[in-house]
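Recall from the previous chapter that SMILES is a line notation for molecules. Here it describes flavin mononucleotide.
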Amino acid sequence: MSTENPRVADHPANRIFLDRWSPRAFTGEAMPQSVLFTLFEAARWAPSSYNSQPWRFLYATRDSAHWDKFLGLLIEFNQSWAKTASALVFVVSETTMVMPGKDARVPSHSHSFDAGAAWGSLALQASMLGWCAHGMVGLDFERARSALHVPEDCRIEAAIAIGKQGSKTMLSEMLQAREFPSPRKPVAEIALEGGF
Ligand SMILES: Cc1cc2nc3c(=O)[nH]c(=O)nc-3n(C[C@H](O)[C@H](O)[C@H](O)COP(=O)(O)O)c2cc1C
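With both inputs in hand, we obtain:
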């Protein structure tokens, strides 16, 4: 399944960046663990402050005993479409880190930034393999912390629904209207020479 992609780059960039997008219609097919682990492998090589690698990925595939629990942690709107994903992943980051040559854990300034870089790599790797990764913050963070036994010094960043793109006819009319690769602000608006 593919959708016509109206995205146009302002400046030459590799096509993988324009081809990645976040559909909500998924086929619900099984995802081989080897593919899922390839996505985690891509995430693993992301850069992080002091190479602290604060990201953790809690996952459930749709054929596993964990699936219903993971799906139930999303808000109803996200459950309504993510129920046909092949895997659900919660991205968590450690908020403290050990500086090189030290023993004590200290607060990390960049744990979320680092985990964001890792999720970005995961999403691009998924897209390159013909899968789609759709980020979500629409979830019950308090229940997720308890149900997934997330330690106190970790932040739940977001969840990800991963699947193969399905037919948008399976979605409500409202969601069908939003099922296309979205545009972006121009580079001139986001890159500011010399400061704000
Ligand atoms: C951290 C994060 C949280 C998001 N939360 C949701 C969500 O809860 N529900 C949803 O339908 N989409 C969610 N999205 C998808 C975004 O709306 C989408 O990435 C954005 O509109 C850009 O579209 P694209 O990913 O197709 O390029 C989220 C994306 C990210 C990165």
